[in-house]
User: Which sequence fits this backbone?
């Protein structure tokens, strides 16, 4: 176990943590007795997770920050200390004796470990530095036969836009050429027409919000300036390994849009005001058109939605009906649980990429039906659902594995952790002590010689509970 003792100031000063620890101990006052209390939590720059009960507001009033002001003040004390050392996220676990003697362990961070979500337990372990989940490595299929839609009409588009925006300042040919050079892609004619009418620079509107609104209404989106066009490659979509590894890229034979994470042919030119991006698609699906307009949703990680067959259709608000596949091909991502697929054998087929075994109240499953499947790259299994965790060693193509601590313990003790992994995750349940989970994480990280989760030990005294 990698540990170190600290007696300095700031984040490593016990006094910095006292208010948080006192609140957590008070929340467990009904458990206080002769045995020590264990508390844990996580504090990040963008949020925190502490097991504290919040008081109900008076009848007829919504909750206010002042209702939890003690909690906010305690967290801000820690956050201020985090800022001084440049830390983004700190998890911790503490043991508090009845008399107040406390041992606090700060956990990490490690550059090889993603922060947990709403939990002090570690997130995904990145075993191969800079590795990407398979969907984020996928490029769109070639689209040599794709053509613009018959509705694409640059001349009509330009007339319409100039009628709607008669006083707009358009981009010059040099400015459009500069955008093409920066993006490394040739802009389609319809998009050039749009920017020849208006280059959509804020300074052209002299800070007039109403003018910006008129432009948005004319083009039916919040238009980006010609200088802010960008290509929505896969790298523009944020991911967490434990979520991204559960995705799969699927483009059906009749799909208008390819089901990739991103594409060198998705040119983002605006947004809908709700966080979603509009793009011109130069790499359409088998039934799509070059230059079609798609929506890249901020709540999805894979694929995009067809909005219009052409920019002309979009500006003129002509309806487009996305052609959806209705086939019954077996899923590339299979969920085995009491409410979905009922067996691993039923889920198995040669194209299976992701197997997720969830809550199950029957006999545990054998993995024999999926051994040897050529594309299986992700396995996630809820605790107690595997008849023999050591069967995992025979899944030689896994790049991501998510298991509970007991199953990881079995693999580690047997020396059977698959060496094909790029990332891994330990699923801890409920109020499980993070220290044993961190110990297992460090054993896994050590197999790849990756940076450990360091434990920094701080000691202090909170005083008797009555004084908290």
Assistant:
């Amino acid at each position: 176990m990698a540990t170190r003792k600290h007696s300095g100031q700031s984040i490593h000063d016990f006094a910095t943590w006292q208010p948080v620890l006192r609140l957590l101990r008070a929340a467990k006052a009904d458990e206080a007795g002769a045995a020590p209390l264990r508390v844990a939590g996580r504090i990040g720059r963008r949020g925190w997770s502490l097991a504290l009960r919040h008081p109900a507001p008076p009848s007829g009033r919504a909750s206010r920050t002042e209702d939890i002001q003690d909690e906010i003040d305690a967290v801000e004390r820690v956050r201020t200390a985090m800022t001084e050392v440049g830390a983004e996220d700190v998890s911790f676990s503490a043991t508090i004796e009845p008399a107040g003697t406390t041992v606090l362990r700060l956990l990490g961070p490690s550059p090889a470990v993603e922060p947990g979500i709403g939990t002090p337990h570690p997130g995904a372990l990145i075993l191969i530095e800079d590795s990407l989940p398979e969907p984020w490595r996928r490029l769109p299929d070639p689209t040599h036969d794709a053509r613009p839609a018959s509705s694409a009409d640059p001349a009509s588009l330009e007339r319409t836009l100039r009628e709607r925006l008669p006083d707009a300042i358009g981009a010059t040919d040099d400015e459009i050429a500069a955008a093409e050079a920066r993006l490394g892609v040739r802009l389609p004619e319809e998009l050039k027409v749009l920017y020849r009418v208006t280059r959509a620079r804020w300074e052209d509107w002299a800070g007039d919000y109403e003018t910006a609104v008129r432009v948005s209404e004319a083009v039916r989106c919040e238009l980006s300036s010609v200088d802010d066009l960008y290509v929505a490659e896969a790298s523009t979509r944020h991911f967490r390994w434990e979520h991204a590894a559960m995705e799969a890229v699927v483009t059906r034979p009749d799909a208008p849009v390819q089901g990739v994470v991103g594409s060198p042919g998705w040119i983002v030119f605006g947004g809908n005001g709700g966080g979603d991006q509009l793009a011109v698609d130069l790499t359409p699906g088998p039934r799509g058109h070059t230059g079609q307009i798609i929506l890249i949703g901020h709540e999805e990680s894979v694929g995009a939605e067809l909005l219009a067959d052409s920019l002309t259709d979009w500006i003129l608000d002509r309806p487009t009906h996305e052609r959806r596949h209705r086939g019954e091909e077996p899923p590339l991502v299979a969920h085995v649980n009491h409410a979905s697929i009922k067996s691993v054998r039923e889920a198995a087929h040669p194209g299976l990429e992701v197997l997720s075994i969830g809550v199950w109240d029957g006999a545990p499953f054998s993995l024999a039906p999926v051994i040897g499947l050529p594309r299986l790259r992700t396995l996630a299994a809820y605790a107690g659902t595997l008849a023999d965790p050591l069967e995992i060693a025979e899944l030689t193509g896994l790049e991501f594995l998510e298991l509970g601590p007991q199953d990881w313990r079995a693999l580690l003790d047997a020396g059977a952790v698959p060496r094909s992994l790029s990332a891994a995750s330990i699923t801890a349940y409920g109020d499980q002590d993070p220290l044993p989970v961190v110990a297992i994480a460090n054993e896994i990280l050590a197999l790849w010689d990756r940076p450990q989760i360091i434990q920094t030990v701080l000691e202090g005294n909170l005083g008797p509970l009555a004084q908290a």
User: Anything to note?
Assistant: Residues 306 and 388 are 45 Å apart (CA to CA).
